[in-house]
Amino acid sequence: MKKTVVIYGSSTGTCQSIAEKIAAKLGVEAIDVANLNADAVSEAENLILGTSTWGAGELQDDWVDGLETLKGLDLNGKTVALFGCGDAESYGDTFCGAMAEIYNEIKDKGVTFVGAVPTDGYTFDDSEAVIDGKFVGLALDDVNEDDKTDGRIDAWIDSIKGSL
């Protein structure tokens, strides 16, 4: 596997826990986006980016500056996988929408996205993170469906591992 880093933004600890789980399964480092620096991104060939979703589908706060850092760097040729945390019961109309914010900000930077996930098996009303019937990355509802989290992570890692 090429040099890979997991970068996450977490306010309550849920996204951090998931990021650390993904990083451990891949044997790579997890970095809080609040501590992101250009070197960590430049040295990696693969970026796994995770965020929680707040309010009406907004990014986790630390990602605002993190996205500015990413947009200012040369991402051409990098492979990117996204994951997001949301609450499909309380925020079913914006479920994991923050993934779409990251996706939209870097999609024209020469990156290759991997890890889109079919919406089958999910219960939600709407999400900006769904494009052509799939989430742009791994969507997790660790609030209402924590019993599915580990299985979804394992299946997703299996699906992206060959691309990393």
UniProtKB/TrEMBL annotation:
SUPFAM superfamilies: Flavoproteins. Its cofactor is FMN. Residues 4-161 form the Flavodoxin-like domain. Keywords: Electron transport, Flavoprotein, FMN, Transport. Gene3D superfamilies: 3.40.50.360. The keyword Phosphoprotein does not apply. It comes from the Bacteria. Low-potential electron donor to a number of redox enzymes. PANTHER family: FLAVODOXIN 1 (PTHR42809:SF1), FLAVODOXIN 2 (PTHR42809). NCBIfam families: flav_long, PRK09267.1-4, PRK09267.1-5. This is Flavodoxin.
